Amino acid sequence: MASLTQRTSGLVQRRTEAIRSAAADKERESGGEEDEARRGEEEDDDKGDSKETRLTLMEEVLLLGLKDREGYTSFWNDCISSGLRGCMLVELALRGRLQLEVCGVRRKSLLSRKVICKSDAPTGDVLLDEALKHIKETQPPETVQSWIELLSGETWNPLKLHYQLRNVRERLAKNLVEKGVLTTEKQNFLLFDMTTHPLTNSTIKQRLVKKVQESVLEKWVNDPHRMDKRVLALILLAHSSDVLENAFAPLQDDQYDLGMKRVHTLLELEPEKESTKPNANELMWAVVAAFTK
Length: 293
Description:
This protein is mainly alpha-helical and 293 residues long. It is 57% helix and 5% strand. The longest helix is centred in the N-terminal third of the chain and has 45 residues, at 2-46.
């Protein structure tokens, strides 16, 4: 009887040890996986794109339009103001804050559908939050085309002038100063002094330019819906803001011709048709339609 009890006790002890050993092995494996995932995240943070992804679409478009040494956009560019407002709408849509109203049985065109606030959660960006507040509080809702005009201050209705976002380029430039991309200087233009923001971190702008170039050259996929939505939006909105040419200026002639040919392929797409495809962002295509109509 005693020997039976000893054998039973020994069996239970071995099972307990086996369970503990298996649990320890599993814990080591999970710990190894966590360490590997953590290392992967750290490697991602070390990649060149880590800083670039912290820029909003508005900041990227402005950065493409700024002259590196002079620190200001071209005086002849009259498209960038409305282009930056379009960037805000797309940025808010990509962040899940805005969407177009749902269509009924009879499908409306993109430009006739109203912009709806999907979420009013703060974005952490003052300009975006200001635009989001306007859109949320406006009843009845407005269309994409109307919001681009209202946020730009291009309205004859004095009761709607309060929608205008003022000093957008200056505020975006200050954001880039805080992020260590630009600096602030005073420059004299004979009759007046102007605050300028020359480039200080050329690496970030080079990465941005390279991203735009590669998207239509080495990484061209010949299908807008297989492209990263932010990159696609950046190309289309940079063109609408008349700053895309700056990204292609350093290219050789053959690369330039190929890149511009592919950009025109994107510009010739029909927003109405593209917005109906799976995973398409309708509001982004509505903004494109507003600029290409």
